[in-house]
Amino acid sequence: MADRVPAYRRIATDLAEKIREGVYRPGDALPAQRELSASYGVTLMTLRQALQELRDQGLIVQQAGRGTYVTPAHAAYRVDTLRSFVEDLREQGHDVTTEVLSFQGGILERLRLLGGVPAIHQRSKIAEPFAAKVHSGNFRNVSLYEALTEAGATIARASERIIPGLLGDDHARLLRRPAGSPVFVSERTTYGIGDEILVEDRAVILGDLLEIRAERAATRLSLQWSSVDLR
Fold first, then answer.
1. In terms of domains, do 118 and 202 share one?
2. Is 231 contained in some domain?
3. Which residues pair with 215 in a beta bridge?
4. Is residue 108 part of a domain?
5. Is residue 88 within a helix (H) or strand (E), and if so which, with residue range?
6. Separation between Cα atoms, residue 79 and residue 85, nearest integer Å
7. Model confidence over 15-47: pLDDT tens digits?
8. Model pLDDT, residue 75
């Protein structure tokens, strides 16, 4: 009976078991396709059929020119709190690192990595006088909200708009995903106690690495739904 099971399906089942048992952990790279096809004694075509099965099950992601990876554990970006991306993600136990790409003229550009995998590109316009009081080196370990507080700002509220989008060429290079991949685009304006703008922030978030969750309570969160103009 086992002989009637196609070879690609047996390979897919074996790899799926190894992923679930932790032989290959979330975010790990699988061996190269030629190495895998040789170890299973099948052609590359058969091996690629097996990988297609795993991709359809959501167990792996394939990145052009880089290889095949076990799908990283999804992180949740919560919309019911006034906190930074890093604070949200670290509280959930994710390994988050920040690369500061540039900081000029009050514009801070950062790349967020989850478990070493690029996940978020963030561009923040910091208002004066606070832009002159913060230093780019701090942002590798300190959130922007923390830095603003240390610089004397009082953060009161934020208005945020999150819409679906597709990855453009520039962001595709930075986030190491094919152009056209699904993303969330967050546009957030953070205000001070006197309703002055402290930060205007735009983040491009990989849709296959993060999901958005809201915790609802009568006095804690108000969500407004509006249609997206597709023209």
1. yes
2. no
3. none
4. yes
5. helix 85-91
6. 10
7. 999 988 889 888 788 999 999 999 999 999 999
8. 61
**pLDDT, tens digit (0-9, with 9 covering 90-100), for 213-229:** 666 554 455 545 444 44
Q: Tally Cβ neighbours within 10 Å of residue 199.
A: 23
Q: Are residues 140 and 196 in the same domain?
A: yes
DSSP string, 185-229: EEEEEEEETTS-EEEEEEEEEETTTEEEE----TTT---------
The pLDDT assigned to 31 comes to: 93
Using CA atoms, how far residue 50 sits from 25, 32, 47, 111, 190, in Å, is 18, 14, 5, 33, 47
Q: Which range marks the domain in which residue 59 is found?
A: 2-70
Is 100 in a helix, a strand, or coil? strand
Please give the Cα distance from 129 to 133 (Å, whole number): 7
Residues 42 and 154 in one domain: no
Q: Give me the pLDDT at residue 197, please.
A: 94
What residue spans of 114-187 are helical by DSSP H?
144-150, 169-175
Q: What is the pTM of this model?
A: 0.61
Together in a domain, 82 and 185: yes
Do 87 and 182 lie in a common domain? yes
The reply to whether 226 falls in a domain is no
Count of structural domains, the chain: 2
Q: Name every residue whose Cβ is closer than 8 Å to that of residue 96 and which is 6 or more positions away in sequence.
A: 85, 86, 89, 90, 112, 113, 114
For the chain, report the end-to-end CA distance as a whole number of angstroms.
Answer: 55
| pLDDT tens digits, one per residue of 81-115 | 666 666 667 666 667 788 999 999 999 999 988 87
Is the same domain home to 180 and 204? yes
